[in-house]
Write a structure and sequence with these properties.
Blueprint (H helix, E strand, L loop, with lengths): L1 E5 L7 H18 L1 E5 L5 H13 L5 H21 L5 H25 L4 H8 L1 H16 L4 E3 L2 H4 L2 E4 L2 E4 L1 H8 L9 E5 L2 E3 L5 E3 L5 H11 L4 E6 L20 E3 H9 L10 H6 L4 E5 L8 E4 L11 E14 L9 H11 L4 E6 L5 E7 L3 H11 L1 H5 L7 E12 L9 H11 L4 E6 L5 E7 L3 H13 L3 E8 L3 H19 L2 E9 L4 E3 L10 H7 L6 H10 L5 E5 L4 H4 L2 H6 L3 E3 L10 H14 L3 E2 L10 H10 L4 E7 L2 H11 L4 H10 L8 H4 L2 H13 L10 E2 L13 H7 L4 H13 L2 E10 L2 E10 L11 E8 L7 E6 L3 H13 L9
Parallel strand pairs: 1-2, 1-9, 2-6, 3-6, 9-11, 10-12, 19-20, 19-22, 22-23, 23-24, 26-28
Antiparallel strand pairs: 4-5, 7-8, 11-12, 13-15, 13-16, 14-15, 16-18, 17-18, 20-21, 25-27, 25-29, 27-28, 29-30
Bound molecules: adenosine-5'-diphosphate, aspartic acid and magnesium ion.
The site of aspartic acid (ASP) has 12 residues, from loops.
Amino acid sequence: MKVLKFGGSSLADAKRYLNVQKIVAEAHQQSGAAVVLSAPKGVTNALSLLVEQAAEGQDYLELLAKLKMTLTGIVADLDNSIDGFNTEYLNTFIEQKLSELEHQLAGIKLLRCSPDPVTAQILSLGEYVSVNIFSQMLSAVSQSNKLIEPATYVVAEGDYLDSLADMDASIEEFKHLKYSDDDVLIMPGFVAHNAGGEKVTLGRNGSDYSAAILAACLKADCCEIWTDVDGVYNADPNQVEGAVLLDKLTYQEAMELSYFGAKVLHPKTIGPIAQHHIPCLIKNTLNPVAPGTLISNESSEIWTSVKGISHLENLTMFNVAGPGLKGMVGMASRIFKVISNANISIVLITQSSSEYSISFCIHSKDAQRAQALLNQEFELELVNQLLEPIEMRDDLAIISLVGDGMRKHQGLAARFFSSLSQARVNIVAIAQGSSERSISAVIESRKAKEAVKVVHQNFFSDMHTIDAFLVGCGTVGGELLKQIAKQQELLLKRNIRLRVYGIANSKHLLLDAAGIDLNDDWKARLVESEQRFSIQGLQQFVQTNSLVNPVVIDCTTSHVIAEQYIEIMLAGFHVVTPNKKSNTSSMAFYNSLRETALATNRQFLYETTVGAGLPVIENLQKLIYAGDKLSRFEGILSGSLSFIFGKLEEGLSLSEATKVARQNGFTEPDPRDDLSGMDVARKLLIMAREAGIKMELKDIEIESVLPDYFDSTGSIDEFMQKLPQLDKAFQDKVANAAKDGQVLRYVGQIADGKCRVFIDKVDSSQPLYVIKDGENALAIYSHYYQPLPFVIRGYGAGAAVTAAGVFADVMRTLPWKQEL
Ligand code: ADP
Ligand code: ASP
Ligand code: MG
């Protein structure tokens, strides 16, 4: 005989009941079936809420009416599908049960509390309705069946709402059960009775446990748990994209996984089936052909080390500490005795080796009670300061790594903890089972989902993610999006999932939890969006969607966003930017940015602030790391001025050259930003600071292309109209230089600890002579590179190269790229 258990997820509506009937019919034909049923989906939750509402004196009638609709709705739908279905019987049954319930709720409302025996009765209502429906379904097709009343056969002890089966007593009771081999046995899950004959429940989600009890009592060949997923995965498949189905688990592995939160199986289930060596198969009602996961004594040959990750939420940790604990025999036992006497289960314990503190986690619902009991038990020690006030910390979760083979593998714990640190998860406590079958970390609840995802990524998947948020979608930002759209598929083939989840400009913010389709009209969607950029908004989004590697890409030139980088990193984002404003703000801010990046384990990447896509910062950093020292630097750092000065020597006037540069998109939107020398000065400052020179923007000596006597105020158009006033002076300068075989170049220089930006005259023997047409050239003279400099040369402006540089920085936020 087989025991088949169907959970609420398999009994959500009439269609699902019919599906279950089909599965049972097949199983019964093959080997004889005993069926354990849960309440229809959501019914136990509704009953629990009804009790709560009544106990708080609230109005519960609306919810009661809804519950009635759900139950009678299933019956009515089945009536339409099955000939000879006894709807009347069921409606009377439901009517009678709900009327009892209404009386009980009225009493609870009056008392303002629900005694546990009453709550147990109420909570089990759904299971009874469920088995009666199913029994009528079988009867309608003339399938003989027999209802088993667990309140007669299943003996349990302990809490009314979380009882533990007395297996020996239950097996004895079942010896009295009479049935024929033709009968399909049907038992409501979740219910048992205690020694006093009162109805009790086996704890929420406890129908799995009922199935295991029944399987043991009937000496079944197999216990099948039918649910809404294909089996046990290495992480909750509804939370972790890419979770992998496990073929086999040992009883112990299944126990640890479920104990630490894998809801697919109630942890108590394993006891009876392991004891009686009954194999257990987890199957999917919605996909019966899938082989499922086998839980038995056999281990998997495919998965030999870590099997899975689970997490448990709503926990509270207590810390009992103080000098009184040291060496005092029996303190630990007193703590645990108090807790266990109150029927509070301890989920995890850690003790510091100095014996100075003991920490343990319990379910938060029991926290207030535990606190009061501990304070009472240790009143004397607390008064005499042998113990420190007992600490209690709420909103915690436990994340656990489980697998029999873990004890044979080294480095798993290290990988586990480094994954958590990658997700910036603060570890509150650590515990490892003595069997070395599991490692657990206590963490903050709000980080639990993210933590599971990252740990899963590091243990089971080669897939790495980058979760991008772009601020500023003008020339460079727009180009970057195009490049990302083009590369996404290719990256995915290399196991990198780069998704853009947010795009913002100064007025709107577009967020999409599925990732923005960059081939679609995101511009229109952005304009329609009523949200605006805010760090809190993004942080909330990241949290809700459990994103593990969020990056803010600032493609604005705004100092407003740049000033927020510290907050952005503190909120958990890496920062990638071509925006020069943050690195050229005060030295104090510059230092705080780096300190924050270090402290928050976030990347702050700005390669494109100097030389656009050219690898300037990276190489400079590498030299400095290797102990090199900058002695002198000279370079053409502005693509637009490289272009304009090149055109001057070809005979164009300053105003014409500027106009052409502007038309080709080589200049900033306002060409004065280039011509004033400010842009070059900022780049020079970034380089100087990178080389370890402490200075401010104001310390840089700037010779502007626009002389002091020239009035450069007004609109861009007005400025462009006035610019020809300078043509003559520049023509003369160019001609003078040409007489000596020289050309004019706009140069940034670091020498003797000073920075200068100026118009230089260079001859053909100098490297900068040939640099024009938008090219950049940077000559770095250092201890290692002398007398010949380290030279970097190439296009230093333009949306495509800059965006490609930003893209490269974005890729460096991948954990395995960070060492680069
Ligand atoms: P039922 O109503 O059938 O008892 P549950 O909702 O109690 O179903 O359990 C099934 C759910 O367990 C799945 O939908 C899944 O979201 C969750 N779950 C959590 N961890 C795991 C895991 N490791 N493998 C499979 N499912 C899991
Ligand atoms: N119906 C009960 C619950 O929801 C038992 C179960 O479904 O396992 O907790
Ligand atoms: Mg369940």
